[in-house]
Design a protein that fits this description.
With 213 residues, this protein is mostly helical. It contains 14 helices and four strands. It has a two-stranded parallel sheet with strand order 1-2. Strands 3-4 form a two-stranded antiparallel sheet.
């Protein structure tokens, strides 16, 4: 990011359009889980295999299907129990114990309370409503922190980052989109790729062909 901002500065730009928020606003979230809950197994399998191809095998389609099958059908009590057994302890306490932050400083800034508040924004559980999941993602502190961090980085170079994906009207539109507009054939942010076809250069000619199919 710093390199991009530096290049923009050297070219005399004063403002840049930033897409950090696009991954959140147009993220597919638990789309595979919802497909399985609706009995659309073949579609879920096709999307998982497409994601594996898109990310050049960075993750296993079989593992992704297994994970989403578990999330779709395992009782929530079981999922919470498994999560607790994996940590074997309070995750906030574990985080503090592993941190390099001084214990005295952590107590003075009430770090444990801050981490507990952050954890409260975690997984909202299974939901057939993609809009509700999108809203949770947009309201998560991680997005706010990311935007602020990019703002500081740009300000150091005399630039102003603009975030078109956080326009309230666009956020509302994206929250109302069905999952197949956000993930199609393994291509994330599918609706954006369709909208920008022919308007922005694309290094991969397969994009338009696959999304059109």
């Amino acid at each position: 990011v710093s390199a991009v901002y530096l290049l923009a500065r050297r070219r005399g730009l004063k403002a840049v359009l930033d897409g950090i928020d696009g991954d959140t606003v147009l993220g597919e979230g638990s789309h595979l889980t919802r497909l399985m809950q609706r009995g659309r197994w073949l579609t879920a399998r096709r999307e998982a295999m497409g994601l594996s191809r898109f990310w050049a095998g960075a993750f296993s389609a079989r593992r992704e299907l297994a994970r989403n099958t578990y999330r779709a059908f395992a009782p929530m009590r079981l999922q919470l129990l498994v999560r607790r057994l994996r940590t074997q302890a309070d995750p906030v306490r574990v985080c503090l114990e592993r941190s390099v932050i001084s214990g005295d400083f952590a107590r003075r800034i009430r770090l444990a309370e801050r981490l507990a508040a952050l954890a409260a924004h975690g997984d909202g559980g299974r939901s057939l409503d993609p809009g509700a999941e999108s809203v949770r993602a947009v309201l998560h502190p991680y997005l706010t922190v990311g935007v602020e961090r990019y703002g500081r980085t740009a300000a150091a170079l005399g630039l102003e980052p603009r975030h078109p994906f956080l326009d309230c009207r666009l956020v509302e539109l994206c929250a109302a989109l069905p999952g197949d507009q956000k993930l199609a054939g393994g291509w994330p942010k599918a609706v954006l790729r369709r909208a920008m076809a022919g308007k922005l250069a694309d290094d991969d000619p397969r994009v338009v062909e696959r999304l059109a199919g």
